[in-house]
Amino acid sequence: MGAVKSKRMPRAVREQQMMDAAVRTFGQRGYRAASMDEIAELAGVSKPLVYLYLNSKEDLFSACIRREAQSLLEAVRAGVDPGLPADAQLWAGLRAFFVHTAENPDAWSVLHRQARSHGEPFVSEVGSMRDEIVTFVTGLIGAAAREAHSDPALADRDVAGLAQALVGAAESLAGWANDTPDVSAREAAATLMNFAWAGLENLMHARPWTPPAS
């Protein structure tokens, strides 16, 4: 009797296995230093198979960015219950963000450090994700303003600016938290919530800080 052939792994599963290895390698070694040989070895496949499935190192890196960006977006959206009060929604979104980045440090390194330092098309891929997060946070801040006032005191421009500032702060804080021992996702989220919510609350209750005239 001939030997029984082992069941072949579905292509989609094999691709995810390769991308898992690629995210780990890119995140820890950087895009330039990472080699396709190293990625193939870590994935347990041949280098020609990586090229067959994912074309090139650039295409593989772009695919990793898209996958990890989508995963982060889904985690943040899933963490927010729209039925909660505004501050609880913002807290839930921040905590979901920091939990995800803490549990996936290599993915966050790919998105926040590697992709942004190697030009196009990688910067555009990350920019699209960031735009979606900013839009989501803008909605949360706008909801908070509507909750505080039947006629919201915050102008659309102010809301958009606050969302940009909050997302930028979250990105920087996530990098710091991942690099600093013993900083939990909850602690990082609480730090940003305390920093942001006091200011947002003052704005929503018409108590903005006003710069001096001179």
Automatic annotation (TrEMBL):
The keyword Transcription applies. Keywords: DNA-binding, Transcription, Transcription regulation. Residues 12-72 form the HTH tetR-type domain. Gene3D superfamilies: Tetracycline Repressor, domain 2. PROSITE patterns: HTH_TETR_2. Residues 35-54 bind DNA. PANTHER family: HTH-TYPE TRANSCRIPTIONAL REGULATOR RUTR (PTHR30055), POSSIBLE TRANSCRIPTIONAL REGULATORY PROTEIN (PROBABLY TETR-FAMILY) (PTHR30055:SF158). This is TetR/AcrR family transcriptional regulator.
